[in-house]
Structures are given as C-alpha cells and as structure tokens.
Known about the structure:
Elements: H1 2-21, E1 30-33, E2 36-42, H2 52-66, E3 78-90, E4 95-107, E5 116-129, E6 138-148, E7 156-168, E8 175-188, E9 193-195, E10 198-208, E11 213-224, E12 227-229, E13 232-235, E14 238-250, E15 256-266, E16 270-277, E17 280-283
Antiparallel strand pairs: 1-3, 1-17, 2-3, 2-16, 3-4, 4-5, 5-6, 6-7, 7-8, 8-10, 9-12, 10-11, 11-14, 12-13, 14-15, 15-16
Amino acid sequence: xxxxxxxxxxxxxxxxxxxxxxxxxxxxxxxxxxxxxxxxxxxxxxxxxxxxxxxxxxxxxxxxxxxxxxxxxxxxxxxxxxxxxxxxxxxxxxxxxxxxxxxxxxxxxxxxxxxxxxxxxxxxxxxxxxxxxxxxxxxxxxxxxxxxxxxxxxxxxxxxxxxxxxxxxxxxxxxxxxxxxxxxxxxxxxxxxxxxxxxxxxxxxxxxxxxxxxxxxxxxxxxxxxxxxxxxxxxxxxxxxxxxxxxxxxxxxxxxxxxxxxxxxxxxxxxxxxxxxxxxxxxxx
Length: 285
C-alpha cells in the first residue's frame, strides 16, 4: 500500500512538471486582415488569370471594370491596381476561414478609373492531412468564392479550388517540395456571355533560412478554355507556362509578417503581376 501510494504521488508530480514544461496552447486564434496590394498588366484579348485568389480577384475585377459597352468589341489591354482585404481567422493550426472585400482601379488606355469596391469573397483553407515527420506529404485544400459588385447584369461569379501537396525534407519543415492543381470556374450574369474553366498544374519547392526569410517557387502549365460574348470570342483559349515566385518574412511561429509575390503568366502574351502582402494582426500567437 505504501509503495502504491508513493508511485501514485510520484506520477502526479511528474505529470504536473510535464504540464508546466509543455508550451501553453493559445486560447484565441490568429485574427488579422491579410492586406494584399497588387499591380497587374493584362494584354488585350485575354484575362490575367494565374495562381491563387489574388490573381483570380484581379482578373475578374478587371473584367468587371471592362464589361459594358467595351465588352462586345473585345477586351482591351489593361493595367489594374487591386487591394484585397480578407479578414482571416486561423481557427486551428489546420483550418483558416476568411472573407472580405476587394477594390480596384483600372486603366484601359484612357486614364485610371476611380477606386471602387469591385468584389467580395469568402473561403476556407484546411490541411486535410499533415505530414508531421512522416512519409506522406501535407495535403491542403483552399476554396474561394468570389462575386463582383454591384449585383447587376454582367456581374462575375467565380469558384476557385487549390489542392496542394507539401513534402517537407526536414522535421522543422524549412525546406521541401510542392505539387498541386488549381481549378477555376466562372459565370457571367448574362445570357450572351460565358467563361470556360481555367486549370493550373504546377510543381515547385521552398526553403526557409534561419533568419525566417522564406523563398517559394512554383512553375506550371495553365490551360484556359476562353471567353465568349454573343457568339464572338472575347478571350482565346490557350495552354501556356506560368511562374510564381514568393519571398516571405516569417516569425518564429511561422506567422507571415511580410510577403512579396511576382507572377508571370503567358496568356499567351506575358501578363505580369506583383503583390505585396502586409498582414495587420489583431491577435498573433
């Protein structure tokens, strides 16, 4: 009985010490505005599609700005500055929810338009499986619904899905390989217009230095089915290369502090986009 009591007491002491040594789990999730500012050039007769929701948003904002009297006559070349303001909540280390609005100004050759709210979006990003030192890569799914505003004839709805596989080469996950697919469908609220799906297949990798600067590169092929209006082709179909480069400044807990993205998409003429990410944290664990 005495030995049993001693063993129970010792177990309780060691358990208490283990709890004290364990890192405290955050009780409040990360909450922040994932502020993204993009500048894009879009060649005539095409849409500036690309990787991720930022590229998608800029493309359809530009289309929304160019619809109307110019739409039946084809899509002119355009330059666009877009600001995305999704409020993001990292519910757990595996699931993030976000939603917000985007605004843009566009130059189609006659000067810059006024800056207006041009779309809203909601979405979720979830790790379906985490590698955690194993042999099976982390599998992440991101889905975003975007709708242009105002809600009237010619508005654009899009649904973007990204499935990505991340195989880390070390326990700290500071370097690894990436592969994935992005599939985008879109509709225009018009009986005369249609947009075919857009698909991107890509591979790449990443490396994070001890200073917490992280570089990521993705190279792939993008296939777009084209866009039509009243039987006329607004944007030709194509299958062309696409390149995205990311440089991010992370903290010790892998929260992004700053990021810059460079995107080149051949559509088939080159379309360029540069995006600055400057998250504004209300809560950062």
